[in-house]
From TrEMBL:
<dbReference type="GO" id="GO:0016746">
    <property type="term" value="F:acyltransferase activity"/>
</dbReference>
<keyword id="KW-1133">Transmembrane helix</keyword>
<keyword id="KW-0997">Cell inner membrane</keyword>
<dbReference type="Pfam" id="PF03279">
    <property type="entry name" value="Lip_A_acyltrans"/>
</dbReference>
<dbReference type="InterPro" id="IPR004960">
    <property type="entry name" value="LipA_acyltrans"/>
</dbReference>
<keyword id="KW-0472">Membrane</keyword>
<keyword id="KW-0808">Transferase</keyword>
<dbReference type="GO" id="GO:0005886">
    <property type="term" value="C:plasma membrane"/>
</dbReference>
<protein>
    <submittedName>
        <fullName>Lipid A biosynthesis acyltransferase</fullName>
    </submittedName>
</protein>
<dbReference type="GO" id="GO:0009247">
    <property type="term" value="P:glycolipid biosynthetic process"/>
</dbReference>
<keyword id="KW-0812">Transmembrane</keyword>
<feature type="transmembrane region" description="Helical">
    <location>
        <begin position="6"/>
        <end position="30"/>
    </location>
</feature>
<keyword id="KW-1003">Cell membrane</keyword>
<keyword id="KW-0012">Acyltransferase</keyword>
Amino acid sequence: MFFFRIIASLPLGVLYLVTDVLFLLAFYVLGYRRKVVEENLRAAFPEKSAAERQRIAKAFYRNLTDSFAETLKLLVMSEEELRRRVQIENSALVDALVDEGKVVLGLTGHFFNWEMHLLGASQYLRSPTDVVYQKINSPLFEELMLQIRTRFGMQLVPRLGFQRDFLRKRTQPRLIVLAADQRPTEQEIRYRRPFMHRETVFFEGAEKLAKRFELPVVYGTVHKPKRGHYVFQYSLLAQPLMQRAENIASRMHSWSVWRRTCGRIRRGTYGATTAGRPCDFMAR
């Protein structure tokens, strides 16, 4: 780990000189996964010209190699420099929801540079934050990423242990960050739909979780104004239709499905009871 810290101590401008060389090697010399990238771009953007797709491919490799330097720099980057390079717009949206006592699901994608997004969020948000992550097979790089991601108070939750962790802390108001674009394993595939001209599989856990526990969902988008600088913006993607009894009471005229439940209920249970309480009315 000491070796990584020595490299990370170099100015980001110097590290970018290294990634400039890596870009040339990856794109022009080695052609690292270039056929896969070009094939995906042709499938996703059939309406674009070959020159346009080539520009997108080059920009992708630039972002890919730059992300190596930026992520490594996060190992030692100061809070002041991180705030200069990362802006979070509308972070008050998340804090307001958590202040109301809610658990909030935050969805985002693997857009460069998502690691700066995670650390930047910890500088702007007052809310406790759990980040669900996939463990890295290499113990060395797993330890490196753990040190980077937890520098400013983020709590990491392994994906395979998330369900148990959520149930244990389900009443604790906080933000839970999930990657919305990861591919499920073959055994986990439940949902498919056309996406960018291809049938694509998605995790459906976030939707199920939000519906079952009535959780508001926010989504984070990214804009890169210049090299090494990012602007992330949060927007409310979905919220529960009915969260409290008063929400139902205020819309009684719109609630169309009613059922009187006391007819066949044994005395002494809920409904008609020995205490003389009135029967319940339940929607079915």
